[in-house]
Amino acid sequence: MLARDQRTPFSDWWWTVDKLLLVAIAALMLAGVILSLAASPPVATRIGLDPFHFFNRHVMFLVPSLLVLIGVSFMTPRQIRRTALVVLAVSIGLIVLTLLVGPEVKGARRWITLLGVNIQASESAKPAFVVVAAWLFAESTKRPEMPATSMALVLLLTLVSLLVMEPDFGQTMLILTVWGALFFIAGMRMIWVLGLAGAAGAGLFGAYLLVPHVAGRIKRFMNPASGDTFQVDTAMEAFWNGGWFGLGPGEGIAKRSLPDSHTDFVFAVAAEEFGIILCLMLVALFAFIVIRTLTRAYTTEDMFARFAASGLAILFGVQATINMAVNLQLIPAKGMTLPFISYGGSSFVSLAYGVGMMLALTRQRPRTEIESQEGASSLRAYA
């Protein structure tokens, strides 16, 4: 048992980290392992792989993800700012490289292979972008003369432009939503928030007019008879088949024909085999993580920690909401993973990085430490 008077890095972390939040994240990861075992074997068998190929890789990605999550949660706010700036710069560079030399799959360039590892750089860019944007907004509240808000807008336009070029409109809308929420939390005038929302709506309408892929998904959502809706229809059938308590582990039918049952539609597999009760428990876990982080964020007087933790919580919650809403046919289909539940290496590690920063930013720190961090939070901190 660790004593409170012990002064080691681990004891300092243990007595300041939010243990309830840590337990909820661990429960979500455990649920992901169980659901990967339930959903992935039929997909692997269908494409000629070992039945446990995706499950084994899911567990394999879990190990580095845990190391990243715990390691990042030890960081101070200053270290988080510096690391996020580096991660964002590297991610933007990899996105540019992907656009230049990445393979085209279904009309999009989103992946690049480096040293035998498939990397989706947009995944690591998301949490790093949120932290850097939060730092800029925090600076704008303390130094009105500094053009931090303009810098945050330029950063947003740069990342969004690259994502649109891939194209990846799901990630684009996610980034815009979180940036707009941060803009509002930072105390910006409502007229600017409404203006940005209008610009985002105009951009979506433009994508509908100019990009056949986007138009097709929206048309199929509005009028299912206008195209192939096999995956979303099968997902809805899974919810009906499962009922409240499910058909039982391994007894699901939808996963035998759903191409993305281990990624985009794992929530439907959970409903069919374990029932709506389990799905509601997953929703409760996601909601607890988001609300707990927001609550802890607003108890700190460090504006950067408050904005960054809030932005990361919103990013985590909105991504989960999009995935579950697609499964329930509430919004048009998007390629968005369910955090820590869906299969995906880049997504898993990037989520662990984001959640690790949430844990770090919501740790209980003495007032003297917060003041020293605030005093160092300037552009010179990156020098």
TrEMBL record:
Subcellular localization(s) per the UniProt record:
Cell membrane
Work out whether the entry's keyword set contains Cell cycle: yes
Q: Which keywords does this Swiss-Prot/TrEMBL entry list?
A: Cell cycle, Cell division, Cell membrane, Cell shape, Cell wall biogenesis/degradation, Glycosyltransferase, Membrane, Peptidoglycan synthesis, Transferase, Transmembrane, Transmembrane helix
Q: What main location does UniProt list?
A: membrane
Write out the pathway annotation from the protein's UniProt entry.
Cell wall biogenesis; peptidoglycan biosynthesis
- Please state the Enzyme Commission number of this protein: 2.4.99.28
Report the membrane topology from the UniProt record: Multi-pass membrane protein
Its cellular-component GO annotations read: cell division site; plasma membrane
Its transmembrane ranges are 20-39, 59-76, 83-102, 169-186, 191-211, 265-291, 303-328, 340-361
Alphabetical list of PANTHER family matching this protein: CELL CYCLE PROTEIN (PTHR30474), PEPTIDOGLYCAN GLYCOSYLTRANSFERASE FTSW-RELATED (PTHR30474:SF2)
Q: What family is this?
A: Belongs to the SEDS family. FtsW subfamily.
Protein name according to UniProt: Probable peptidoglycan glycosyltransferase FtsW
Q: Which organism is it from?
A: Bradyrhizobium ivorense
- Name the gene behind this protein: ftsW
